[in-house]
Amino acid sequence: MRILEKIKTVLVSPKNFFQEMKREKGLKKAFLFSVLLSPISILVGMLLNIPDSYGVAVANALAFLPYHFAASIAFLSGWLLTVLLPFVIATIYHIFALALKGKGKYEASYKAAVYSNTPSYLLGWLWFPFSLIVTLWSFALSVLGLKAPHALKLHKAFLVAVSPYAILFLLTLATILVAGSV
Fold first, then answer.
1. Per-domain residue ranges of the chain
2. pTM for this entry
């Protein structure tokens, strides 16, 4: 399946896409999908000069550098994070899927993490409230992407999909509690 066809199918017929995804062997195609699509949102956001918390933090840290050099570093570091983050998310998905008696392999978790991000790859630069809609769309796709290959019921796929958010919330809460006690 070519990349444009893959994008269309993920967005328009996600159930069919994730059923077909089971036949895709290995991580290579999903990884290349991530590498090719992830810069779109970053570039559009930078071109429209849309600040986000990551971009503002990088801009402040690199304020002493010439603008184009700092923008290049911000783009490359954002792209690297966007390409590597699905591996972390897939690991969390996989641990929780196995804990809930899921049947799929790690590669199914990775593909769910990558392909469910398609709306974010394409539209992640949108402002609130549209960014919330894009995030919820990606979340719904992750539920569908985890359900089929791991042979999970919908409520269990939902729990697996929410697990990275729960971990992030708990880590944030722990950080606030530790910082507040210092």
1. 3-181
2. 0.80
